[in-house]
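Review form for a predicted model. The reviewer records the input and the model, then writes brief findings.
Reviewer: anonymous (R2)
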Amino acid sequence: MIVLYELGGKNERRYSLFSWRTRMALRHKGLEFESMPVCMSDKAAIAFSGGKTVPVIKDGDAVVRDSWKIAEHLESRYPDAPSLFGGQIGHGVTQAFNTWTDRVLVPAMLPVIVADIHERVDPRDDAYFRQMMEKIVRTTLEEARAQREAALGRLGRALEHLQATFKRQAFMAGAAPAYADYILFSVFQWARVMSPHELLAPEDPLCQWRERMLDLHGGFARNMPTA
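Model under review:
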């Protein structure tokens, strides 16, 4: 069985947005896996991977770190299972979307939910998380919470073209979901698991897409404990 090393928070939460990409990719491929929760501050637990971040998978004799590299590994190792990319062109377009999400959407989402995440990380990560995130958002967690409405406005502007996309098609990949959908979904599942605030209105095309994603694979993502 594949072993997935990922961040564990309070009440059995699995909150790494990058591990959610891997979780959904594994389900897409129909692969069973065992979750191995680790603390963000516990670098020794994943030292075998040669890196300091999750997700990491052990798949037989293969150890793969980084959600994008894991997706490529799964596509290559399990070619007879449903494709994550839909061919070389899809692979290239999906990689471009992965970069956009990490450089535009994730930084827009983080200030909105960072204080809420801090309340739900493993207590052993409390000081480590605060120190790291306050460097990234360049303010204290308390100030980030106070400035949430302004951050929410910036997030909304970043999401405008995605709202338009889902007026035209059911999934990022078109008529059926693929890895591009899991990249985008990871950001919203991150927020759903770690923040009590609803970011999308029911009438939003993005909200309707998220509901379709939550229903995938037998409601796999919907059944995760949330805030």
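Findings: DSSP finds eight helices and four strands in the chain.
Further findings: The longest strand covers residues 2-7.
Recommendation: see findings above.
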